[in-house]
Design goal:
By secondary structure, the chain is an alpha/beta fold. The protein has two domains: 101 residues, lambda repressor-like DNA-binding domains (434 Repressor (Amino-terminal Domain)), CATH 1.10.260; 135 residues, Endonuclease, Chain A. The protein has a five-stranded mixed β-sheet. β4 and β5 form a beta hairpin. α3 crosses α4, α5 packs antiparallel against α6 and α11 packs antiparallel against α13.
């Protein structure tokens, strides 16, 4: 098989790959995909190429080309790279790679990822599951696979990819301050099986070595607990503003009012004080790993 034939085979095989469909309920995302599609078509026509000829040149099928140009399919990064090269766009098409990669994720997740990307400090208490930023891909997959009503397989993989993509927050420079308090039960429940839990605990130990990350454990034996009203999270931003949410406060809605945020910060501060220290928590997780 020649290089061109192999490329075409890859393109045709990936034409129906899950996770790159356009969500009709995401108006802003759909509009962006449609705009990029129109630009690709304009560049193709300006180059005097038919859809089939263009598809063969970039290693994708004609049907996929029509779907992308019609705004019915999100172009993959390699599609945009090849299109930019073949059409001589000088980077004007390749520049959309990041936006197209992001728009494949649900709008709610994209909005959360943007907030996390802007935060200089994150405070998060979790009582049922590990916080999404702490989860391994296989742990996240186990969580999504047990959702009811059941997710379709492609929806599971899309959700996992979106969750993992948010974890670039650990690589940011300057680094935000990240504080997590997790219930002991979230570290013991073998979601996905014992080996998934072992690798998840190992991942927590690895993250706890990062200077900007503090992971604390709330022991089940704790007699006083300020977090009994449910999960709590606060995101603080460079301009001094913040956004917070707690299941047991303000009807569970997100708040930005300084007085309401103060209540959430006080609650989180008490939760941290009642939990094991980061050093004690590290030893606790190591002990759990030894038991698993």
């Amino acid at each position: 098989m020649s290089v061109d034939e192999a490329g075409t085979a890859r393109g045709n095989a990936g034409a129906d790959e899950p996770g790159w469909e356009v969500d009709p309920d995401d108006e802003s995302g759909s509009a962006l995909v449609a705009s990029v599609g129109r630009q690709i078509k304009a560049w193709r026509e300006s180059a005097g190429m038919r859809a089939g000829e263009f598809g063969a040149a970039i290693g994708y099928g004609e049907d996929l080309v029509f779907k992308v140009e019609g705004g019915r399919r999100i172009p993959r990064p390699e599609f945009l790279d090849r299109a930019d090269e073949v059409l001589g766009a000088g980077g004007k098409l390749a520049m959309f790679k990041k936006e197209m990669a992001e728009v494949r994720y649900p709008k709610k997740v994209r909005e959360l990822a943007k907030l996390e990307a802007q935060a200089v400090e994150l405070l998060a208490y979790g009582d049922h599951n590990l916080h999404g930023l702490l989860q391994t891909a296989e742990y996240a997959r186990a969580l999504f696979e047990m959702r009811l009503p059941a997710y379709e397989p492609e929806a599971v993989e899309q959700a996992v990819a979106a969750r993992v993509a948010r974890q670039t927050i650990f690589e940011r420079s300057p680094s935000p301050a990240l504080s997590f308090v997790q219930e002991e039960a979230t570290l013991r429940r073998p979601l996905g099986g014992t080996m998934v839990l072992r690798r998840q605990l190992e991942h927590l130990l690895s993250l706890s070595q990062l200077r900007q990350v503090a992971i604390q454990v709330m022991p089940t034996s704790c007699e006083e607990h300020a977090g009994m009203q449910g999960e709590t999270q606060v995101l603080k931003f460079k301009d001094g503003t913040a956004l917070g949410r707690s299941e047991g406060a303000f009807n569970g809605r997100a708040v930005s009012d300084p007085k309401q945020l103060r209540i959430l910060e006080l609650r989180y501060g008490m939760i941290r004080a009642q939990a094991l220290t980061p050093r004690e928590s590290l030893a606790f997780i190591e002990h759990l790993l030894g038991e698993t």
